[in-house]
C-alpha cells in the first residue's frame, strides 16, 4: 500500500522502525532477567557492592530517557506553534523607527559635542577666575 507506511517518522525527516521509541522505552523500563546464581564469594561480594549503584544508575537513565522524550515532544509542539505564527503573521516594518533612531543619534552627538565645548569654555573661565582671585 502506498498510503500507509510501516516506518515511523523521526525528527529531520528520517524514517525509523515502527514503534522503535515505544520498544526502547518498554525495554528500558523492564528489569533485566536475573543472572544465573554464582557460588564464588568474591563475585557475590562484588555483585552485592555494585548492584545498588547499577540499579540507581539504570533508574536515572530511564528518567533521563523519559525527560528527553518529553523535551522532544515539547520542542515539536513549539516548532509547530512558531511555524504557525510565521505563516499567519507579517513582521512589523522597523525601517521608519531605525531611520528616526539614526537621526536622533546624529542630533544627540551634535548636542554632546556642543556641551563638551561649553564645558571646556567654562573650565577655562573658572581657571582664569581662580588665577585672578589669587593674584
Overall description:
The protein has 135 residues and is mainly α. The protein is 73% helix and 3% strand. It contains 3 helices and 2 strands; from the N terminus they run E-E-H-H-H. It has helices at 20-29, 41-88, 95-134, and strands at 8-9, 15-16. The protein has a two-stranded antiparallel sheet with strand order 1-2. Strand 1 (8-9) and strand 2 form a beta hairpin. The longest helix has 48 residues, at 41-88. The radius of gyration is 36 Å and the shape is elongated. Mean pLDDT is 81; it is low at 1-17.
Give a quick rundown of the structure.
This protein is an all-alpha fold and 135 residues long. It is built from three helices and two strands, in the order E-E-H-H-H.
Helix content: over 70%
Low-confidence blocks of residues: 1-17
Could you report the average pLDDT, rounded to the nearest whole number?
Answer: 81
Number of strands: 2
Strand content: under 5%
- Content-based structural category: mainly alpha
Q: Indicate the radius of gyration in whole angstroms.
A: 36 Å
Distance separating the two termini: 108 Å
Seen as an oligomer or otherwise, the chain set is single chain
Helix-strand pattern: EEHHH
